[in-house]
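User: Second chain of the day. Same drill as before.
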Amino acid sequence: MLKKICFIIFLFSISLLFLTNCDEAEELSGCTTATACNYAEAAAVDDESCVYASGCDSCSGETDGTGTVVDGDADDDGVCDTDEVAACTVSTALPPEFKSIS
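Assistant: Same format as last time:
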């Protein structure tokens, strides 16, 4: 009879150990601001790591905390890539009125 009681107490102790571990699950931390580029949908605790796009830049779109800022002005000339105007990029080229007639 004593063995049964000891066994029941042992099983009860083990079950309490497992229940305690489950209740103390660690909360995920990350950026919790939905407008930030590195927003982590699953994060419950804000770790103040949020990064934001500004100017020509945009966000890559991930919502798992791995999102990044995408450069929207690749040549850093102050004009957004979407607003760039294609033009001659040869520095030695002259407009037609400056070319000599042969």
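The helical segments are 2-23.

User: Great, on to the next one.
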